[in-house]
Specification:
The protein is an alpha+beta fold and about 90 residues long. It has a single domain, classed as Alpha-Beta Plaits (2-Layer Sandwich), CATH 3.30.70. About 35% of the residues lie in helices and about 30% in strands. It contains four helices and four strands; from the N terminus they run βααββααβ. The chain has a four-stranded antiparallel β-sheet with strand order 2-3-1-4. A hairpin with a 6-residue loop joins strand 2 and strand 3. It is globular. The chain starts with a strand and ends with a strand.
Length: about 90
Amino acid sequence: MATTIINSHKVENFAKWKQGFDAGAAMREQAGIKIKGVYQSVDDQNSITVISEVPNPEMAKAILSAPGMKEAMEKSGVISVPEIKILNQAI
């Protein structure tokens, strides 16, 4: 059963962030990450939530702690500490 990652953070500019996000598509595909949705807050278009699936919790933790991940997020304009949830489906 797949593991779900919910990653919410604030960005300085959605368009800039989206360019960085799109640039990571090949890496995500190679790592087995499936994007289930990208959302903007109705009150703040620069408040983003990405929902994705990976094969297992270990992979989720490895991806999130990978060298360069923090730098890539900062380069794409992430300006807050990400709120990340790693979830397994219960029902």
